[in-house]
Amino acid sequence: MNLIDLHSHSTASDGLLSPSALVELAASSGVEILALTDHDDVSGLEEACIAADKCNIHFIRGVEISVSWRGHTLHIIGLQIDSDHPVLISGLAELRAGRKIRAERIADSLAKAGINGALEGAQRHAGNPEILNRTHFARYLVEAGYASSMRTVFNRFMSGGKPGHVKHEWVQMGDAISWICASGGQAVLAHPGRYVLSDVEMCELLGEFRSLGGRGIEVVTGSHRPDQYPVFAKLAIQFDLLASIGSDYHGPGENRFPLGRLPELPSGVTPIWRDWPEVVV
Ligand code: AMP
Ligand code: MN
Ligand code: MN
Ligand code: MN
Q: Which of 14, 67, 96 to mutate to test the pocket of ligand 1 (most atoms within 8 A of CB)?
């Protein structure tokens, strides 16, 4: 069985490592198949692909798209995408334009809470000026001494109802799925256990996701507790969805799991890589 990690971030979004440094770390950690899935951006894929060729690791082109569904923010991963596809490129550009306005609103909200210079501070932590997200603000707030760790900064500032959290309308879930499908990719619902939904809403989400062309859900992810793995394995089977696995790696010191060090998928699920020629099961 290959060592597979299908969810990771580089400096093209909110990761700490450059795409090539990330691939080198994955290779030296024994990962055989890696997907880079930066938020709303594919600009790191080329560098990662070249690095992967050199390190002899199989590279999967990916992206993690922010969507709005019934007022909740969800993340949809695209795997095996054609990152040059015009439909995907223009959709992501639209999302990034919205991000810019949102970042200014986050900074205004922090300023009202007495924290000045957050926009410039966050920008200093961003590797890609087009992707300024809450992680960059959080890193700035830790650096400036407003909180001692990323965990506390999210609890105190960047989560719902707190300064530093603003409502934002991302794209519709169906749009993100259609961009991924248009570019030949597979759409995977990222870390479903992170969304605050009732059991009924979760079932409605999975049904809708499937009927819009979604193919899989993350079952084992750095964002799930171990007791959530069997829960989402069961839901994957119930909704005829394939199962994915990924650390959601953001960089040294910022993760529950190092790259590729995840438990195996629970038995009974069908892995998203079922038909991928590069995977030897
Ligand atoms: P944004 O797309 O601007 O809403 O930022 C979302 C990013 O913030 C996620 O991709 C995570 O990297 C990070 N994040 C969200 N919640 C937390 C948390 N509780 N602790 C650490 N990082 C978080
Ligand atoms: Mn992130
Ligand atoms: Mn995510
Ligand atoms: Mn992620």
A: 14
Residue 39 CA to ligand 4 centre (angstroms): 7
Q: Provide the 3-class DSSP secondary structure of residue 219.
A: strand
What is the DSSP secondary structure assignment for residue 154, as one 8-state letter?
A: I
Query: How many Å lie between the centroid of ligand 1 and the Cα of residue 134?
Result: 6
pTM above 0.70, yes or no: yes
Give the whole-angstrom CA distance, residue 108 versus residue 170: 19
Closest-lying ligand 1 atom to the alpha carbon of residue 133: 3
Q: What are phi and psi of 77, to 5 degrees?
A: -90, 135
Are 28 and 260 in contact, with CB atoms under 8 Å apart? no
Ligand with minimal distance to 14 CA: 2
State which amino acid sits at residue 241: L
Question: Does the beta carbon of 39 sit less than 6 angstroms from any atom of ligand 1?
Answer: yes
Q: In this predicted model, what pLDDT tens digit does every residue of 32-89 receive, in sequence order?
A: 999 999 999 999 999 999 999 999 999 999 999 999 999 999 999 999 999 999 999 9
* Ligand 1 contact via 255 beta carbon (within 6 Å): no
Domains in the chain, ordered, with CATH? 4-92+175-246 (3.20.20.140), 98-158 (1.10.150.650)
Q: Is the dihedral of CA 223, 225, 226, 229 positive or negative?
A: negative
Relative to beta strand 171-172, strand 186-189 is unpaired
Q: The tokens of 106 are what? A: 């986050």
**Nearest to residue 97, comparing CAs of 177, 169, 17, 173?**
169
Answer whether 136 contacts ligand 1 (Cβ < 6 A): no
